[in-house]
Amino acid sequence: MIRLIALRELRSLFAMPSTWFVLAALQFIFAWFFLARLDAFLEVQPQLAKIANPPGVTNMVAAPMFNTVALLLMMLVPLFTMRLIAEERRNQTLALLLSSPLSGLHIVLGKFLGLLVFLAVLIAAVPLMLYTLSFGTSLDNGLLLSNILGLFLLTAGYVALGLYISALTAQPVIAAIGTFALLFGLWLADISAVSGDSPWHAISPLHHFLNFNDGLLDSSDAAYFVLFTAVFLLLAIRRLHNNRRYG
Amino acid sequence: MSNTAPEITLSARNLARRFGNVQVVHGVSLELRRGEVLGLLGHNGAGKSTTLQMLTGCLLPDDAGDNLCSIDICGIDLLHHPVQAKAHLGYLPETPPLYRELSVDDYLVFAARLRGMKAAGVASALARTRQRCGLEAVGKKIIGTLSKGYQQRVGIAQAIIHEPDVIVLDEPTVGLDPAQIREIRSLIRELGDQGSVILSTHLLGEVESICDRIEIMQQGRLIYGGTSAHMQQHGSVSGFVVGLRNPPPLAVLESIEGIARVELLSDTQFRVLHAPEHDPRAELLTLAEQQGWQLEQLTPLQATLEEVFVSITDAETAAVARSAAGDRQPGPSDPGAER
After folding, report:
1. Residues of chain B with pLDDT under 50
2. Which residue of B has its CA nearest to A14?
3. Stated pTM of the model
4. Does A244 touch chain B if contact means CB atoms closer than 8 Å?
């Protein structure tokens, strides 16, 4: 059942021209940024060769690239999560799901996984681009893997949050703006908090991503993302149940 | 499935629902048997859709935890075992729940699988349902590009593709042209013979033509329940509209034997009411010929929903008053018995 809903979500996504447009535009932005970073790296490479233990191409190109994609996700994910439940409610298709032999868990997990698979495909282009560098040089696989894992966990967290906000309203645009405002607010609070042990750092997803970005695999960061995702998925299930109660 | 009484496929007791401070549905109880088409008749805003939403699990009734309130579908409690109970349901909401970006076939396959059909049986179910709903020609088309009538048919198709025991249709013939309405009505009749159907409508003619049993709903209460034939007696009004190009004075018409009342509709049209046992039409026709009134129209009166309501509520209030005077026992439709 979860797979069925996830596949329906994917099918609907790929049936819409806007999805293809966003996919194309993003690949273009990713590629542009990748080439710009690569260019900058090649320019400073002669000077880097002079210092002892210089930063490699993975550090200079891959890590900043992942960091930028993480920031882009903040704007990108709300565009996709806004439709998940708000649009079903607005088009009255939610009644089909609610009158089918499914629990709220099936609906929420199906939609979550469907969109996560789509976004995973979308951002998979980033490591693929970076791996083209391995034709000419050797890459730091550990750093790359840590970044890929971090980006995936970050996406999952964002999607879960967006799904919950989408379940709160019947207007996709409000869901998009709400999700973006929350993600942007968390990020702003995080970067404007100066003290190292500020609680804003602890609750900001991007702050936890930075450790992955540096190649630092900390189980507490992973646990944070799992918790973040689970909490919002549970809230979304609860909201769907209350949908039956409050109409 | 005994031979004497068909099994009960749906039974609901004491459904009540409020939105904010407005009580939309008051203590509604319904029963549906296999092989039956039940019509839920009422004006817009009478609480029909809300009742159907509760019957399909889209909306929880107030006091859902209460023992008084229950919804059973094929003997399974919808409120406590929603997943098992909903497997026996097919539901068409007021707005058909269509994913506009999918093709008709993809959508119907999704709906069938969603309702728990095994993948092996879906292809034949799809072919059968497309044929039944007249969707053979549009299987590959995108739902959003179809006309309103076709979209409504796709909505009906998704509700019946898994051959549920209980089919709930909320105003199924809205947006269809007359020919399609006839097709869909005969389809509903056919569905009612195998499973059981409950449909809501505000069209009196619709329930008369397809329903075995009728519940009339007004302001959140069921005010009348009975067979379709029984209701037609309530619905029949003894009277006709007559058009005379060269009409006599009103008093002359009124003096014809059997005519109880004549109302002037326009300069040449009259609404004539008469006692049911005495039809004055023959006499009127003779007179019209003799006196040169130039008859141009003679149409029997069709009862409107309003008139049926009035005649039913009048009859019930009278019955209540009689029984209250007799043994001081309030009848079931006494508004005071609710609270």
Report:
1. 1-3, 328-339
2. B101
3. 0.83
4. yes
